[in-house]
Amino acid sequence: MSDLNSNRAFKEAVCIDAMRVFDSCSSQDCLEDLTLTFDEESQTVINEAQYIKAKCIEITGCSFVIDPVPFNRGFYTVDVTYSFRAEIEAYETVGEPPEVVYGTATADKRVILFGSDGSTQRFMSNSTAVAALPAPTSGCAACCDNGTLPVAGVSVAPPMCLDADLVIGTGEEPADNTVTVTIGIFAIIQLMRPVPILIPAYDYGVPESDCPTESDTPCELFAKIQFPTSEFFPQGLDSEQNCGCEKKTE
């Protein structure tokens, strides 16, 4: 498909509807001492643990809050909330196999980006309307000065667990132990709006190859898989490293 239509002449200019990125930024954040939340059963395991190790951390979700910046038309604050899920190995005694539990945590990130402005509402037959929210002004103009918010997006690399600590509960009454983790993340945050764009078109992308219809046996499919040579030989320091998700830290 990479060579499809590459040698064909320009045919016409067509208008498409696309999401234009008006502004973006990259971030390298070290989120220190995030407290993990456990369910009741997992919390009991943490309370009995003598030490813990963080085996893996992943991002399970992300939410946004977008607000216009007062007196700076076209700029918006973007509050990004990351949701994390951590796999924790809890050791009750030295030398015994650990018990694996899972905890969750959230972290916030705020940036200011340019997202342009618009005062129209967008209606489509296969979706709901994009609501126009009032701008943060006061007085009689507050009910009239409306603007459609841009769309925020974030691309995040796999998070890295930099540290994990078990904090023993103290006090006269029995207190729960807590687990804190330090997470490193790389992200790119964008503000976008749907816009009509005129682009050159060569032709429709009609596939030039047929889809095979024959069905292979399991052994024939297995024979087509390349032998995983790299899995049998350790990698050196100069080789490509893992994201750190499997690295155990105390």
Number of strands: 11
Proportion in β-strands = over 45%
Shape: flat
Mean pLDDT: 83
Give helix % range.
under 10%
Through-space gap between termini: 48 Å
By DSSP (H or I, 4+ residues per run), the number of helices equals 2
> Main sheet?
4 strands, antiparallel
Low-pLDDT windows of residues: 129-144, 246-250
Write down the oligomeric state: single chain
Radius of gyration: 26 Å
Question: Descriptors for this entry?
Answer:
mainly beta; 2 helices; four-stranded antiparallel β-sheet; three-stranded antiparallel β-sheet; 250 residues; disordered C terminus
Structure in a nutshell:
With 250 residues, the protein is mainly beta.
Description:
The protein has 250 residues and is mainly beta. It has a domain at 12-115 and 150-206. The protein is 6% helix and 50% strand. The protein has two helices and eleven strands. It has helices at 40-48, 218-223, and strands at residues 12-35, 51-68, 75-91, 99-114, 122-124, 127-130, 133-134, 146-147, 151-156, 160-167, 178-201. Strands 1, 9, 10 and 11 form a four-stranded antiparallel beta sheet that branches. Strands 2-3-4 form a three-stranded antiparallel beta sheet, with helices on one face. A two-stranded antiparallel ribbon has the order 5-6. A hairpin with a 6-residue loop joins strand 2 and strand 3. It is flat. The two termini are 48 Å apart. The model is unreliable at 129-144 and 246-250 (pLDDT under 50).
